[in-house]
Amino acid sequence: MSASAFLNAATRQQHDDRVPVWFMRQAGRSLPEYREVRAGTSMLESCHDPALVCEITMQPVRRHDVDAAIFFSDIMVPLQPAGVAVDIVAGRGPVIAEPIRDAAGVDRLRSVTEDDFADIAEAAGLVVAELAGYADDKPLIGFAGAPFTLASYLIEGGPSKDYARTKSLMVGDPQLWHRLCERLAQISTTFLSAQVHAGARAVQLFDSWAGSLPLADYQEFVQPHSAAVLAALGELDVPRIHFGVGTGELLLAMGQAGADVVGVDWRIPLAEANRRLGGAYVLQGNLDPALLGAPWPVLAERVRAVIRSGAAAPAHIFNLGHGVPPTADPDVLGRIVELVHTEGPALRAEAREGRP
Ligand code: 1CP
Predict the structure, then answer these.
(1) What CATH number corresponds to the domain at position 325?
(2) Which range of residues forms the domain containing residue 26?
(3) Whose CA is nearest to atom 48 of ligand 1?
């Protein structure tokens, strides 16, 4: 057993039913101190400045007493050394100068080595050193985008609503699709390994947009590539979280891809997610981020409901069902952390006693 409530839950050893909590996108525009340090520096420039990455990663930890830090970076960062010209445009998201739509495009994508991520490793090292100063053990979570979600940006050229070009290439030229995803799996694996070798003690693979796929297509075109990434990280002996939005129909397949923890969005209760997963996975989630502006007593009840529902699973890490919206009031996040820490153990114990 570790001293970290987060790692204990992630490895199914939830201690005294303590409920760990962190928030996807906890570092970011909802924090005034983030907006201040980012002023005048582009998103991608920020990601390559180790001192700034460390500062931004630590901001929510200092403010909220969350149980883990998530490395400040972006899923597009590891595509740069692979030869992709990418920009992150404020208010829009990633934009790709030359979208990949044919074999020549796929062949332009180079493989990467951990040496390509020296600045990332340096930043992670700074974070780990600062985390060591906390009385309770707060691990650093490393992350990467999964091949499907990365492919969707590369093929569409930017954010998309329907992933039409991505899906058309996927079913229309499966050979090219698989070649692209193999390369992306290599890139994501290397990015994650670099973070783990620099001290990250858990990883999250974001397949944010996989929920746009039917199960059969997910299994045929996506799961093998995410499985390759997760298997490689398994060799490094860190818990692996696998998350996507709108993945109610895909949960079991995402678990079977090689996850230890399955991230669930807000569309289904955690107890139902646990049922769909056969009770075999730790769950992470799943407060609807759109409720953060609701009156506190109402929101607090929703937080309690998530904890009660999560008690059905072998272990539960509290989180939102997706990222913190830029409009969120940071004080509300702080109150949620406090509630999860103070009431979480009793709520879990009650919910577990009430179960046959
Ligand atoms: O200027 C800014 O502040 C830009 C906003 C921003 C931020 C703060 C972007 C652009 N990326 C990030 C950081 C980021 N990206 C983190 C930070 C760590 C933390 O969680 O605190 C993480 C984990 C990501 C990962 C990421 N980037 C994902 C997966 C997570 C998710 O939200 O589903 C995705 C899909 C991206 C692409 C991306 N980068 C930025 C935006 C706005 C987007 C989404 C665009 C879209 O809707 O398609």
Answers:
(1) 3.20.20.210
(2) 5-352
(3) 159
